[in-house]
């Protein structure tokens, strides 16, 4: 098994290096598909450029590809195209399996390595995982309702954005070609994804460049995150009231405090 992981990248640079350092331990090949201009037409920040340069210098990434978005298609379509480029890079690198990532996503190395062994032993063609949400700081965590496409075998007809995916609540831009008969969803005790998407140096910049075009939804997210205080429940739109537990910053990623 040779696993290539590809990062869709424009922002989230606060977490990129920590994510790469963590995920490097279970991935055999890593690419970054980056944009100099976002899907919303905003130029990339110097922080983001510096993060990629540092990743290259540290040997954390094997290939960097620059993607020019098309403003004739939706932001979500651009995200899917970037993930497809990552899959194409994986094929050229000789990978047998693929996983698509974002800069703010983390996996525990021992869990991911254990999942690799199970996939090889059982012959699962595609997999998915649950995710944990973090808010304000990486020390506040809760189980999320969102799931994530995980390690998937690369076959001749494998593409990104496949619908319907074998497991619900997965980002449609990263759903990969799969058959329910050969799919496995891991329980959270085995492996999960740890998401820092509500932790940013500039949260407004994240929202401005979101793939989601529903401004009403984004306004509710901004209001909920701004109003939240430790010990309170987070009233997140479409997710309900979320209770967070205090944990350590186990991935040693960006903490605004």
Relevant terms:
two-stranded antiparallel sheet; 257 residues; single chain; Glycosyl transferase family 2; 10-stranded mixed beta sheet; Spore Coat Polysaccharide Biosynthesis Protein SpsA, Chain A; 6 helices; alpha/beta; 27% strand
Task: Describe what you observe in this structure.
The protein has 257 residues and is an alpha/beta fold. The chain has a single domain, classed as Spore Coat Polysaccharide Biosynthesis Protein SpsA, Chain A. The protein contains 6 helices and 12 strands. The protein has helices at 13-23, 46-57, 75-92, 109-122, 203-208, 215-227; strands at 3-9, 29-34, 63-66, 97-102, 105-106, 126-135, 137-153, 183-185, 193-198, 234-236, 240-242, 245-246. The strands form 2 sheets. Strands 1, 2, 3, 4, 5, 6, 7, 8, 9 and 12 form a 10-stranded mixed β-sheet that branches. Strands 10-11 form a two-stranded antiparallel sheet. Strand 1, helix 1 (13-23) and strand 2 (29-34) form a beta-alpha-beta unit. Helix 1 runs parallel beside helix 2. The longest helix is centred in the N-terminal third of the chain and has 18 residues, at 75-92. It is globular. The mean pLDDT is 95.
